[in-house]
Structure formats: structure tokens, C-alpha cells
Amino acid sequence: MDTSIDHIGIAIQSLEEGKAFYEALGLEIEGIEEVPEQKVRVGFLPVGDTRLELLEATSEDSPIARHLEKRGPGLHHLCFEVKDIEASMEKLRSSGYRLLSEEPQPGAHGCRVCFVHPKSSAGVLIELSQKR
Ligand code: CO
Q1: Cα–ligand 1 centroid distance for 99 (angstroms)
Q2: Which of 26, 38, 40, 123 is 20 to 30 A from 68 in CA distance terms?
Q3: Contact at 8 Å (CB) between 19 and 43?
Q4: Nearest 5°: CA angle at 73, between 98 and 129?
Q5: Which regions in the chain score pLDDT beneath 70?
Q6: What pLDDT score does 102 carry?
Q7: How far is Cα 4 from Cα 114, in angstroms, rounded to an integer?
Q8: Alpha helices in the chain (DSSP H)
Q9: Which domains, from first to last, does the chain contain?
Q10: CB 53 within 8 A of CB 32
């Protein structure tokens, strides 16, 4: 299979507080970035071949703020790297799976991303990401 798990998204109330646990495990945050289109501030921590993405809401109508309200902090999404995001989206769409956007959206580090509705993927919010 020509893909890998790019990162695992974790919703937290505060990056500064949330990262402390992972730093105690010996992981290091490699830069914090704001993604205005998603209304989040994210910090990536490399772990082996993948990364954790800590997500903090930057506004009350952020998807992360809604997630924290409904479910509290915790696992949020799983991100697969894909080579051709339009092709992956078209394949899912034509197979009847629901996507959360019609077009790829801007993600962190200049990636282009798309989310799959969790009702289409057995309850797991899935992000597809194509590197710049
Ligand atoms: Co993500």
C-alpha cells in the first residue's frame, strides 16, 4: 500500500500544558504553527516514523473547540499521507464515502488536506494529506 500514517491528531485544551506529558516521555515538539483555515494551533512531535499532532482551538467555533466541548481532550483523528489527494478523494467519493470538503484544504506545513466524515469510516475521523 502506497501510504503511511503521517500523524495522529490529539485535541488538547492548551498546547503548553498538553505538551508537558509528551516531553516527560522524551518527545520533543518541533515547532508550533497556527492554521487559520482550521482555526487551530498545532504542535508536532516526531515519534519513530510518525508524529503526534497536538491541536489547540484558536476560536470558539473551531472544530477542536466543539470536539473538546462534546468529548473532552483526547484522540481526534488519524492522518494518512497520500501521493495524489484529488485521486484519493475521487476514489472515496465514487465509492460512496462522505468527505467533509469538496476540495483539498490548506493544512499545516503547506500540506493539502481533506477529512473523511467519521460516519463513513467506522467512527474514526480520517485526514488525508498530500505534502507540498
Ligand atoms: Co492532522
Answers
A1: 15
A2: 26
A3: yes
A4: 40
A5: 1
A6: 95
A7: 16
A8: 15-24, 63-71, 85-94
A9: 3-130 (3.10.180.10)
A10: no
Q: What is the pLDDT of residue 1?
A: 57
Q: What is the pLDDT of residue 3?
A: 83
Cβ–Cβ under 8 Å, residues 114 and 100: yes
Written as nine digits, the cell of 35 is 492554521
Tell whether the torsion through CA atoms of 75, 77, 80 and 83 is positive or negative. negative
Q: Considering the entire predicted model, what is its pTM?
A: 0.92
Predicted confidence at residue 2, as pLDDT, reads 72
Please give the Cα distance from 96 to 82 (Å, whole number).
19
Contact yes or no for 11/74 (Cβ under 8 A): yes
Cα-based angle 50, 112, 81 (whole degrees, multiple of 5) = 30
CB-proximal residues (5 Å) to ion ligand 1: 9, 53, 79, 127
What are the backbone dihedrals phi and psi of residue 5, each rounded to the nearest 5 degrees, phi first? -80, 110
